[in-house]
Amino acid sequence: MSADPTVFVVDDDEAVRDSIRVLLETSGFRVEDFGSPADFLSSDAPGRPGCLLVDVRMPGMSGLEVQLHLAETGSALPVIVITGHGDVPLAVQAMKAGAVDFVQKPFDEEIILTAVRTALDRAERQRGRSCPPEVLNRLATLTPRERDVLEGLVAGRPNKVIAHHLSISPRTVEIHRARVMDKMRAESLPRLVRMALEAGVVPKGD
Predict the structure, then answer these.
(1) Which residues on neighbouring strands pair with residue 33, listed in sequence order?
(2) What is the mean pLDDT of residues 8-14?
(3) DSSP secondary structure letter of residue 130
(4) Cα separation, 174 vs 43, whole angstroms
(5) CB-based contact 44:54 (threshold 8 Å)
(6) What is the mean predicted confidence (pLDDT) over 26-53?
(7) How far apart are CA 110 and CA 96, in angstroms?
(8) Adjacent-strand bridge partners of 50
(9) What is the DSSP string of 64-91?
(10) How many Cα atoms are found within 13 Å in the side-chain-facing hemisphere of 42?
(11) Whole-angstrom distance, CA of residue 85 vs CA of residue 106
(12) What domains can be seen in the chain, in order of their start residue?
């Protein structure tokens, strides 16, 4: 898997996804799109470098709920919300929750490009922050299997998915996860993921 930054687009409207993809790819950005929040959150995208463009109104799960889920699981992806007419109050709510920007439909191409550049710049600054030496030292104490489990957690995968991916039992994943939390001295999963991201841990592709 490439560690190059990617613009992830989540929108249930295929025409919107296609138009954004064409605009961004024509401007030199790497793009991956998803038709639903569930597809996005079940992938390894939340743990990879880049930014997220997400529609604020979608069936089942709103863009704001996606943003809050990312924050709760420790994902460092900067978020840009896409809004339709009348959705500005929701966009403001998303901004208060940490979104980088919001863009309104119909899109102004330059506004989208500026928002994406700003989000990717923020992501780059976050990755460039110096990681405390003690965190790197703790990371070095992990066994290869513990590192595999950590990468799965950074990718936002549930224990069962990590177990399937590594061909081990969910119970074994739980044991490794507990050891990783202990070795990294992380009091919570979000804290563990943040430390791992600061240390440059990027999940491998399947």
Answers:
(1) 9
(2) 95
(3) P
(4) 20
(5) no
(6) 93
(7) 23
(8) 6
(9) HHHHHHHHHTT----EEEEE-TT-HHHH
(10) 8
(11) 9
(12) 6-128 (3.40.50.2300), 133-198 (1.10.10.10)
